[in-house]
Design brief:
This protein has 259 residues and is α+β, with helices and mostly antiparallel strands. The chain contains nine helices and six strands. Bound molecules: guanosine-5'-triphosphate and magnesium ion.
Length: 259
């Protein structure tokens, strides 16, 4: 077929292929969720149903896209990693990013009523996204550690902040001033002394964030004639709130990074 004289415009498109043989991490983040969470009356500092909704969207992602091998979420953000060898959309950055963001957002809207049956959603949610390639397993492990440390710092601060505001009648400014310059240990002390609260007893979903990945689970596929179960190992997408900074998790789940 002859080219039309207009076809040259295609040559303006830029190549955006991501580096080969690197882990592709896509992180999405809720746009203006400070307002979105207020309008939808999310509980402070953590709304467990809002977090469960995010996790459910991440599960849908892993079930839809087999190249995503692990994901980690906290607050209004979620990070997904595509396996090193992934040829998903020929590793084209804009394709991978736009599909991740739109599939996640569409699920968020579709699943809203499953998690908030009594609430009509106020405001239209949207997520920004970015793609980063990491060359080594160490870099990737440090990425998850970075996000989980962030989760801890933010959650501990927010827990103190909202306890002071909601239970001690402090203004936001007063709470801010009380917490200024405090270290982890001071905040644990404050929670214990003033509220009898042991930070480490808070639900792990708040303290650790959420991991979504394929785990090996034993499944009964049938029973023999004598009634004995026949089991098979199957990979199933699971949500858990584990520590991804220490070696333990990665040693227990070697297939995630070893492929
Ligand atoms: P941009 O991401 O820059 O568009 O702004 P943002 O308003 O989304 O802020 P950011 O992503 O830095 O932080 C997320 C915000 O979402 C938090 O500051 C909270 O206000 C809100 N948020 C997230 N999760 C919860 C929750 O479980 N409960 C409540 N009450 N608010 C939440
Ligand atoms: Mg945000």
């Amino acid at each position: 077929m002859a080219n039309s004289k207009y076809e040259y415009v295609k040559s303006f498109e830029v190549v955006d292929k991501l580096l080969p043989n690197t882990w592709i991490v896509v992180r999405i983040d809720g746009r203006n969720f400070h307002r979105f969470s207020a309008e939808n009356e999310f509980e402070k500092p953590n709304d467990v149903q809002a977090l469960n909704l995010m996790n459910s969207c991440a599960v849908a992602m892993l079930e839809e896209f087999p190249d995503i091998i692990f994901s980690y979420g906290v607050s209004d953000e979620y990070s997904f990693v595509f396996k090193r060898t992934s040829q998903f959309y020929e590793r084209r950055s804009s394709k991978i990013l736009s599909i991740t963001v739109s599939f996640f957002t569409a699920n968020y809207v579709m699943k809203w009523k499953d998690f908030f049956p009594q609430k009509d959603m106020r405001l239209v949610p949207s997520f920004d996204g970015r793609v980063v390639c990491y060359p080594s397993n160490e870099n990737l492990r440090h990425y998850w550690a970075w996000r989980q440390v962030d989760c801890h710092i933010n959650n501990q601060y927010n827990t103190c902040f909202w306890m002071l505001v909601l239970n001690k009648g402090k203004t936001k400014k007063e709470a801010q001033d009380i917490l200024k310059g405090t270290q982890t240990q001071d905040k644990n002390e404050l929670l214990f002394q003033q509220f009898g609260m042991n930070y480490s007893n808070l639900p792990a979903i708040f303290r650790k964030g959420s991991c979504v990945f394929k785990n090996k689970v034993e499944e009964i596929v049938k029973h023999t004639e004598s009634g004995d179960p026949v089991k098979r190992l199957r990979k199933k997408v699971v949500v858990s709130h584990c520590d991804v900074i220490e070696d333990r998790f990665w040693k227990d789940h070697p297939w995630i990074l070893d492929e």
